Amino acid sequence: MRRAAYPLISVSAASAFAITALPAAYAAPSATAVIAEVYGGGGNSGATLTRDFVELGNAGSAAYDLAGYSVQYLPGSPSSSSQWQVTQLTGSIAPGGRFLVAEAQGTGGTTALPTADATGSIAMSATTGTIALVSGSTALTCKTAADCAADGRIVDLVGYGTAVVREGTGPATGASNTASVARAATLADTDDNAADLASGTPSPVNSAGQTPGSGDGDGGGDDDPTQPGTVRVHDIQGTTRLSPLAGQTVAKVPGIVTGVRTSGSKGFWIQDPTPDADPRTSEGVFVYTGSAVPTVAVGDSVLVSGKVSEYYPSSTSQSVTEIGSPTTTVLSSGNALPAAVTLDAAAVPDAYIPTADGASIESLALQPTVYAQDFYESLEGMRTTFSDARVVGASDAYGELWVTVKPDENPTPRGGTLYSSYDQPNTGGIEVMSLDTTTAFPAADVGDELSGTTTGPLDYSTYGGYNVQATQLGTLVDNGLKREVTRRQKGDELAVATYNVENLDALDDQEKFDRLAEGVAVNLNSPDIVALEEIQDDNGATDDGTVTAEATLKRFTDAIRAAGGPRYSWRYISPENDQDGGEPGGNIRQVFLFNPKRVSFTDRPGGDATTGTSVVKTRKGAQLTYSPGRIDPTSDAWDSSRKPLVGEFVFHGETVFVVANHFTSKGGDQPLHGRYQPPARSSETQRAAQAAEVNTFVKSLLAADKNAKAVVLGDLNDYEFSRTVTTLTDGGVLKPLITTLPADQRYTYVYDGNSQTLDHILTSPAVTHLDYDVVHINAEFADQASDHDPQIVRIDVNKCGKH
């Protein structure tokens, strides 16, 4: 592990110099380390020097160790959003010596600084600001003179111009594009900036005693295109999620090319083979070439100039730090690549991500030993590697799959990773893509293995978050995951299933119909009732007002019959055009299929898209006013969303009410891995309202007949631990059957490598004798008929409660 940000200062018998003790707050004048000179006009109009700088001095008789220290800058008139900017230090100041910290480089000036002892990228104001010498590298938070005086980490502080934060009676005055503020040669410190520092010609001196023109200079050979500039990749990446150099142009940043992307978002990754000592600062960065295919190759040693930016894949995602509009010089080829960082259970923390009460976490200092997402961010753009990883999210059409680098994290019996709580997201999942465009991406199912080593730069996207862009992809080992087949219902069992068939319409090819039909006839073993979600109208997404689905259902039921299933009948309510969400023009709706040789449907005409059904009490128990019918279809809860379909069935003389649902999607929710933490689940509000509507309907059913047998099922687009489900089950009127399974089997869907529950079957209290099964045939497989797994409940209605 890399060293901590705050190393202890110790005395070693082998040291060349004695090390001074940790100093008091700057309220006590320092007799040793001080800020000797401050200049923020580098590269500005009229300036001679090309860079800003801070010069430190040591008035003591022993070397002053700067390991773990930093120089920090705050604007002269800080606002509530102003942050201290940090430049980390290493090395020491010799007795009576100087220590030169180079900061941002401007576009003007002609003279380079002498070789700097430390390099930062802070763009200081020429006329007003505050510089602090700090024991530690965590950004200060004080913004007043009094608060900063109370911070014991501050060794010395200089406010200049009109700075609010300063020592003594006032700030040092006279700073400009052509003038610095500096202490006298004695480095005397009385804790009064106005008295201790005076304006004059900038005169930077480094630890070797060099002045401008006497050394190699900070430009690394400004006139030599083969010499690196002063900015390194870790300066660009910084210690938070945002680059401290965003919006600035950087020159001749050195690195080794570690990966090249020639399609999509084209560009390449570089990594500095000489890292700094801070585990928060990544040594890799993406160089974005736009539409141009990169001309570099892996192993090239390059110098890159360009503009630093933060690219946001979406409005709520985290960002990717990039160098854009690049100019690249290749110095040599075939160089050894920097060692890859291992991703495994020992390296990745168990906590997921820091929180900010729903606000952005971008300004928070990274804690890569505490949070998994901080760990990944601290490696953004760097080479990473893992070995022998289990696939937890099947390959998709975009050439992506998911693995876990934590094999013991919430495993499912079939090889996935269970998502079972908002509070403890899985941390070991990582997305894998390939930079090899000449080799087909493997078709992996959940439970398969990427054997051997997978290595490549770590990237970030809005779909899935952090991902490895593999330059070396492990070998796929097929562990033989099988599609499940549930048992056939017994003669006295009513089998009711739910299946999201993913936008099925009459224009789809026959293969889709046949595969979905096989799922019903073979894998579900021909249920008596099947509630379908996402049946589109007959002409699919053509938005011409068509809302019927007769041709779609004819083709589907024909395909089921051909697959060995029964001749199903169907019932549904045609929606109003473009009022139920989903694909525009598609008009998805729920549909009941039923086997008339096993179960009968009680038709009570009158229900339509805007006329809801209700419950009436009769001598024979509860019955619907309309069957099929919808639940309160004009309620605001169903705006741009599917309305529940209710049907009244009879099996072995017993009435069973079935409510088919497809609640509103999670579209618009902030991603789990995004920059706003905790993420807002805005779509949950509408689902909770929809759940309340269905709950009210079931309560009316039970009020008419406490022994009413009800099955509520469908794609609820929410988890078993969600507010949606707790609202739906309020008052104990429904039992979610997913909770009757062992915890590691509670899933119907796989997203971003997380096996999770979105589809549900719930039953009323009178349904006491049942057998429930989730039938895994789609979600875990690269080859899918739908992205959802169906599920089924078999009910012995004659043993259930009587009215």
How many whole angstroms does the radius of gyration measure?
A: 33 Å
Distance separating the two termini: 68 Å
Q: Give the uncertain stretches in residue-range form.
A: 1-27, 218-222
The largest sheet, given as strand count, sense and whether it forms a barrel, is: 7 strands, mixed
Mean pLDDT, to the nearest integer, reads 92
Total strands: 41
**What is the global morphology?**
elongated
Going by helix content, strand content and strand pairing, the class is: mainly beta
Question: What share of the residues does DSSP label as strand, in percent?
Answer: 25-35%
Count every helix, treating DSSP H or I runs of 4 or more residues as helices.
8
| Helix percentage range | under 10%
How does this model look, in words?
This protein is 9% helix and 30% strand. It is mainly beta. The strands form nine sheets. Strands 29, 32, 33, 34, 35, 36 and 39 form a seven-stranded mixed beta sheet that branches. Strand 34, helix 7 and strand 35 form a beta-alpha-beta unit. Helix 5 (510-523) crosses helix 6. The relative contact order is 0.08.
Question: Outline of this structure?
Answer:
The chain has 803 residues and is mainly beta.
Features:
single chain, mainly beta, 41 strands
Walk me through the topology:
Elements: E1 33-39, E2 51-58, E3 64-65, E4 70-75, E5 85-88, E6 92-93, E7 98-105, E8 118-119, E9 129-134, H1 145-149, E10 154-160, E11 180-183, H2 193-196, E12 197-200, H3 233-237, E13 249-261, E14 266-271, E15 284-290, E16 301-311, E17 320-332, E18 341-342, H4 372-377, E19 383-393, E20 401-404, E21 429-434, E22 449-461, E23 465-470, E24 475-477, E25 494-504, H5 510-523, E26 529-535, H6 550-562, E27 569-571, E28 589-594, E29 600-601, E30 615-618, E31 621-624, E32 629-630, E33 645-651, E34 654-662, H7 684-704, E35 709-715, H8 723-728, E36 735-736, E37 749-751, E38 754-756, E39 759-763, E40 770-774, E41 791-795
Parallel strand pairs: 7-8, 15-17, 18-19, 21-23, 25-26, 34-35
Antiparallel strand pairs: 1-2, 1-11, 2-7, 3-6, 4-5, 4-9, 9-10, 11-12, 13-14, 13-16, 14-15, 16-17, 19-20, 19-22, 20-21, 22-23, 22-24, 25-41, 26-28, 27-28, 29-33, 30-31, 32-33, 33-34, 35-39, 36-39, 37-38, 40-41
Helix pairs in contact: 5-6
